[in-house]
Specification:
The complex is a heterodimer of chains A (about 250) and B (about 325). Chain A is built from six helices and 15 strands. By secondary structure, chain A is α/β, with parallel strands linked by helices. In chain A, strands 11-10-9-12-8-1-6-7-13 form a nine-stranded mixed sheet, with helices on both faces. A two-stranded antiparallel sheet of chain A has the order 2-5. In chain A, a hairpin with a 2-residue loop joins strand 9 and strand 10. In chain A, helix 3 packs across helix 4 (about 125-135). Chain B is an alpha/beta fold and about 325 residues long. Chain B folds into two domains: about 1-165, HUPs (Rossmann fold), CATH 3.40.50; about 185-310, Rossmann fold, CATH 3.40.50.1220. Chain B has helices at about 15-25, 40-45, 65-80, 90-105, 205-215, 225-230, 260-265, 295-310; strands spanning about 1-5, 30-35, 50-55, 85, 105-110, 120-125, 130-135, 140-145, 160-165, 175-180, 190-195, 220, 250-255, 270-275, 290. The chains are: A alpha/beta (about 250), B alpha/beta (about 325). Chains A and B meet through helix 3, helix 4, strand 9, strand 10 and strand 11 of A and helix 3, helix 4, strand 5, strand 6 and strand 7 of B. The structure holds flavin-adenine dinucleotide. Flavin-adenine dinucleotide binds next to helix 6, helix 7, strand 14 and helix 8 of chain B. Flavin-adenine dinucleotide binds near residues 242 and 276 of chain B.
């Protein structure tokens, strides 16, 4: 089985979020990048489990600059066989998805996996865009994934519940919690990652469809109003009269 | 014209009314496209929120996003849509990106407000820690609206329901089983949420959480460790690596308020925190705080809500 796992870098979850250049750019100062948790914990680990059980190859792909190679090596250390970096900054989801689609076209991947979203732009866009560009079926936000022969058996989240579905490969799947457990890379994996192939591929010319023109921070909360734990009627009255939420 | 896709399989959800309201507020006339066999009279009631026409493909069950994308694209062509609106829910996340590629139309995913005067659309970024303003560079734009970002608003126009054949072809996805807890309020759509963390000590203690949720008509949620150890189902896990929510009221009991938890809930309009530790970081993000034991405070809270509701009648 040939599996392509799309990975994105993401700022570490404890990063201080700030913007520069008149609030037009994310301030990368002091920010540590990690592999986007959904891509790593669920998509990549499940891909590795499937490969270990059934054989095959796991390729990871990212759209990014040489600065992203460190994040790629982290994913290789967890166990991917080889990596591809499309050598251009990922300007928007459409641009990113179309670059990956261009690479993946005709390469015979059976499964293309992504995380359900990135924890920085939270768009949930790349997987669906890839599926459309490659004219493949798409299972969005899957919490379980198994493969039997050419059939994918998955459980996807639906509004207010979950659904077991089946589809024939090849297919694009965005992966969510429940699919696998985080793996901590061991020393051997980290050493091996240094020499695994990282193929740098030139991008194709295309335009992004969207631009982030600026950013802002939420207004600071005014300080908390403390309520006597023995006077919950007061809280309910405040929630009704002052906050108007009940 | 503006076009809205709604899922009407289980009647008209609040998310559907929000998207129609949003489209109407953009200015132009609103067309709605939907699939499934909802009653024409039910669909016509979307006229109360500003829809002038509803196109219904009753033959499509909506299980395969590659069929739904054909449905929406066909409707977009029919009405020459300039803006296409989805809810940023599980269906919107599956269909809107496909449509973006099909129409080469920029997608603003997870909008939290109407476009600014310059056309830029505000979205949540960094899991709710900040906002971004997205400019769309294509002639047609697609916006998926984060649930609970605007309230449905009456704006009555006369509304026609028309049968629509999208010629979407066969489904590539076979549904084997559907699990939907009866009566549960879907978390992302809930206006009120009662959430609890490791402070509750064990799954057997969740009764006090559920009682308050029932009294308030709220959905239940939890912190990540609680879902990880299996005290609660994964879909209740809120935060940076769980579901991001923005209810009107978020009540957190026995949750410390780690940065990754706050990321997913700080879009809530009002936050109430119940914690034994007065130094818990969550109090800094709270509007109302109670320093106290969740096992004592939650039942009293429930009683107070019941008294309030009884007095209202
Ligand atoms: C990459 C990454 C991603 C993460 N993503 C998420 C995420 O999406 N969501 C998330 O929630 N966490 C996430 N976390 C975990 C997060 O850092 C915290 O560990 C977690 O939120 C803590 O959960 P908690 O508040 O339930 O437990 P604790 O931190 O153990 O807090 C329990 C709280 O309960 C209080 N308490 C104890 N007894 C009582 C009582 N009787 N009554 C009232 N209060 C009581 C305590 O004072 C304490 O404040 C993530 C962590 C990492 C590293």
């Amino acid at each position: 089985m040939n599996i392509l796992v799309c990975i994105s870098k993401a700022p570490d979850t404890t990063s201080k979020i700030a913007f520069t250049n008149g609030d037009t750019q994310f301030d990368e100062n002091g920010v540590q990048y990690i592999v986007n948790p959904y891509d790593e914990w669920y998509a990549l680990v499940r891909a590795l489990e499937l490969k270990e059980a059934q054989g095959g190859n796991v390729t990871i792909i990212t759209v990014g600059t040489p600065a992203d190679d460190a994040v790629i090596r982290k994913a290789l250390a967890i166990g991917a066989d080889d990596a591809v970096r499309i050598d251009t900054p990922a300007t928007d989801a459409y641009f990113t998805a179309m670059q990956i689609a261009e690479f993946a076209k005709g390469k015979g991947f059976d499964l293309i996996l992504t995380g359900k979203e990135t924890i920085d732009y939270n768009g949930s866009q790349v997987a669906g865009m890839l599926a459309e560009a490659l004219e493949l079926p798409f299972i969005s936000v899957a919490a379980k994934l198994d493969v039997e022969g050419a059939t994918v058996k998955a459980e996807r989240e639906i509004v207010g519940g979950a659904q077991e579905v089946e589809v024939q490969m090849p297919v694009v799947i965005s992966c969510a919690k429940g699919m696998a457990e985080q793996r901590i890379p061991n020393m051997r994996g980290i050493m091996a990652a240094r020499t695994k192939p990282l193929n740098v591929v030139a991008p194709v010319a295309l335009d992004a469809l969207t631009t982030y023109s600026s950013y802002s921070m939420p207004a600071a909360k005014s300080s908390v109003k403390l309520i006597d734990p023995n006077n919950l009627d007061e809280l309910v009255a405040l929630l009704h009269n002052e906050a108007k939420v009940i | 014209m503006n076009l809205v896709y709604i899922n009407s399989a289980n009647g008209l959800s609040k998310a559907a009314l929000e998207t129609v309201t949003y489209a109407k507020k953009l200015g132009a006339d609103v067309a709605v496209v939907t699939n499934g066999g909802a009653d024409a009279s039910v669909l016509a009631s979307l006229g109360n929120y500003g829809a002038s026409v509803v196109y219904q493909d009753s033959s499509l069950d909506g299980q395969d996003p590659s069929q739904l994308v054909k449905l929406v694209a066909a409707a977009a062509q029919k009405v020459s849509a300039t803006t296409i609106i989805f809810s940023h829910d599980l269906i919107g996340k599956a269909v809107a990106p496909r449509l973006s590629v099909r129409l080469k139309a920029g997608l603003v995913a997870g909008a939290v407000a109407l476009p600014e005067a310059n056309g830029n659309v505000k979205v949540n970024v960094f899991s709710g820690k900040a906002f971004g303003f997205v400019q769309v560079n294509s002639a047609t734009r697609i916006i998926s609206l984060l649930p609970n970002s605007i309230q449905p608003e009456a704006n009555s126009v006369s509304c026609l329901v028309e049968a629509f054949d999208s010629q979407a072809g066969a489904s590539a996805i076979t549904v084997k089983a559907t699990k939907k807890p009866e009566g549960a309020i879907p978390l992302p759509e809930a206006e009120r949420v009662v959430s609890a963390g490791r402070g509750l000590k064990g799954p057997e203690n969740w009764g006090v959480v559920e009682d308050l949720a029932t009294a308030l008509g709220a959905a239940t949620a939890c912190s990540r460790p609680v879902a990880d150890i299996g005290w609660r189902p994964h879909h209740e896990h809120v935060g940076q690596t769980g579901v991001a929510i923005r209810p009107n009221l978020y009540i957190a009991a026995g949750i410390s308020g780690a940065i990754q938890h706050l990321a997913g809930v700080n879009g809530s309009k009002v936050i109430v925190v119940i914690n034994t530790d007065a130094e818990a970081p969550f109090f800094k993000a709270a509007d109302y705080g109670i320093v106290g034991d969740a096992f004592e405070v939650l039942p009293r809270f429930t009683e107070a809500v019941k008294r309030f509701k009884a007095a209202q009648h």
